Amino acid sequence: MEGTSSYGAGITHALQDNGIHAVEVNRPDRSARRRQGKSDPLDAYSAARAVLAGHGLAVPKDAHTGALKALLIARRGAIKARTAAINQIKDLLVTAPAELRERHRRYPTTLRLVEALGRCRPSAHDDPTAVSVLIACKALAQRIEFLERQDRELTAEIDTLTTTLNPALRAAYGVGPDTAAQLLITAGTNAHRLRSEAAFAMLAGAAPIPASSGKTSRHRLSRGGDRAANNALHRIAVVRWSHDPRTRDYVARQLTAGRSKKDILRLLKRAIAREMFKHLTAPCPIDDYSDLRPTRQARNITLATVAEHFGVWPNDISRLERGLRRDDNLAAAYRTWLNTHYIDAA
């Protein structure tokens, strides 16, 4: 089948439901298509030749991938429409009457501006131009608030689905609902689609490509593959570069060794691709933190006491207890300390 995740999805699922083995083939080579032309019979012959040669075959993605893709498309559409509405508001205020422009210039953030425009009363003005501009801005502000609610709801649905499908991937440092969903969509929730870790790196555009010339010996990232998956790896790398102590230490060592930040980012993305491949192909159980808060409350221990003992902020302990932050080392030490504190207190 060609296009098992698009126009061929229906017949692919029907074949699989009836126990018929189906494989996905790549579209015909563009140069061959230009030479031979295009028609359904020609495409069918090309697909048959590809199957007989065993070239460019893949296992179709399962239905869970389609569910994630639908939610992710809706969320990204809401974010794109929200950004467009914000830009439209700012454009309208640039050419608005001076009174409106000066009044709304004092808001320090876009969020405050949107809230103020959503509560404004256009009928309180006498100038017809000001009334029209405020009506338009109020409609856009209400649209933004609606899209923000959609974003939160869709993100919660994506988070629930990704956590159910692959809790280890979702719990990895720097992997949020959006990035986890994109990696699952790219790889497919059926892990046997990926032949090797190197193949996944090439698929995600994180494979090192030689770019040497003369006495210069270097590599660059692949510009092929799924660019959305590459963007997910990039965001994970940026988050770890900013907040993960181990990654920051690694970056410091590489900078001392004379590597550029671009080369370090390439190495990080390749290492993250290796880690993500393990999570995608061999999902493992993760530590459950749900026992920490009831145990602490049963011991009558405050968050401030725990935070002071471990040298972190109380909010970090609260997020750890609610499963919003993953730190297995801190959780294990916290659990041991709670039991020891109870024994000492007794």
UniProtKB/TrEMBL annotation:
InterPro entries: Transp_IS110-like_N, Transpos_IS110, Transposase_20. Residues 19-41 are annotated as: Disordered. GO terms for biological process: DNA transposition. The keyword Protein biosynthesis does not apply. Residues 137-164 form a coiled coil. Residues 1-94 form the Transposase IS110-like N-terminal domain. GO terms for molecular function: DNA binding; transposase activity. It comes from the Bacteria. Keywords: Coiled coil. The keyword Acetylation does not apply. PANTHER family: TRANSPOSASE FOR INSERTION SEQUENCE ELEMENT IS1111A, TRANSPOSASE FOR INSERTION SEQUENCE ELEMENT IS1547. This is IS110 family transposase.
